Amino acid sequence: MSTDYKFQGWMGLDKTAVDGNMKWQSFEPKLWEETDVDIKVTHCGICGSDIHTLRSGWAPTDYPCCVGHEVVGIAVKVGSKVERGIKVGDRVGVGAQSLSCLKPDCEECSNGLEQHCPNFVVGTYNGKYADGSKSYGGYSDYCRAPSHFVLKIPVGILSADAAPMLCGGVTVYSPLVRYGAGPGKKIGIVGIGGLGHFGLLFAKALGCKKVVAISRNSVKKDDAMKMGADEFIATDEDPDWAKHHARSLDLIISTVSSPKLPIAGYIQLLGLFGQFIQVGAPEDPVPGFHAFALIQNGVKIGGSAIGAPHEIESMLKLVAEKKLKPWINERPLKEANGTVLDMVAGKARYRYVLVNEAHAEA
């Protein structure tokens, strides 16, 4: 079905795209279905996943690829079978996932765990739908996505603030809530970057008894304390950090994507039956550790992947109620290549958001 607008965006054509070589060109969106929504993109967050995908870091990328899975904009075309009562003109967003099998007999999909669907998962970019159509993301003018994963953005949250929450935010919000962060709990957040800063904001907003920021050095200490940290551990500045803070935490969320994780040390920070949850995704294997590190205190180690639509809605409700503000740097969409380079260089403080100036509200 034809439209009066064009789907075009910044396309990665090969691995050199991550070096500032994305090209602006047209693309063919997924075949239209009556469950779909076309979004006129106003804002799109830059996620670490974009970098991994542009350079084929996790796996070979299906080029050409338009990345960006923290998409916010205006619904300009809505199918007759859309969910959530979405209407043309609504401000909406889509995160890292665009589809799962959604079958009634799928245990995961039927229980609000769509991101763990074992049958069929389509990412918002670099994915393929059942009909062979490719998914393209939000470094673009328009984005088409199935409505099950398209959410209304609550009044009171700016579009630029909402965008990075749709992947980066929910990636830490989901395990915090699932593993009991709240009053009386002592929480550690490893890594004070795009994900980690959300971890500090949300842990504080959830009313945790103590929030501890954990980083290699103290460069970001002042920022971390402003985000809600009560304490700060700099692992490179205290050779006995694990001993000094042993058994002091109930839950640790690790957001770092470096494979050089001192996991054995982190585990020492956990008290009885504590939990260590990894959400950052390094491209290379992480170090091993002795089994007794888990056995002695009954510690559990696990992982968590993004968040389901209902979790994103819950997160956005908390953000609106608590008036939380992420730390973002807005950049024009036309400067996407340069912003990707700055992201790779670690200059974000703490999340870049691309603004489509042709579509963004004044």
Summed up, the helix count is: 11
Low-confidence parts lasting 5 or more residues at pLDDT below 50?
A: none
Helix content: 10-25%
Summing up helix and strand content along with how strands pair, one would put the structural category as alpha/beta
Strand content: 15-25%
What's the rounded overall pLDDT mean? 96
Biggest sheet character: 7 strands, mixed
Principal-axes geometry comes out as globular
| Computed CA radius of gyration, to the nearest angstrom | 20 Å
Number of strands: 17
Give a written overview of the molecule:
With 362 residues, the chain is an alpha/beta fold. The chain is 23% helix and 25% strand. It is built from eleven helices and 17 strands. Strands 3, 4, 5, 8, 9, 16 and 17 form a seven-stranded mixed sheet that branches. It has a six-stranded parallel sheet with strand order 12-11-10-13-14-15. α8 links the parallel β13 (249-254) and β14 (270-278). α4 (168-178) crosses α5. The longest helix is centred in the C-terminal third of the chain and has 14 residues, at 309-322. The radius of gyration is 20 Å and the shape is globular. The mean pLDDT is 96.
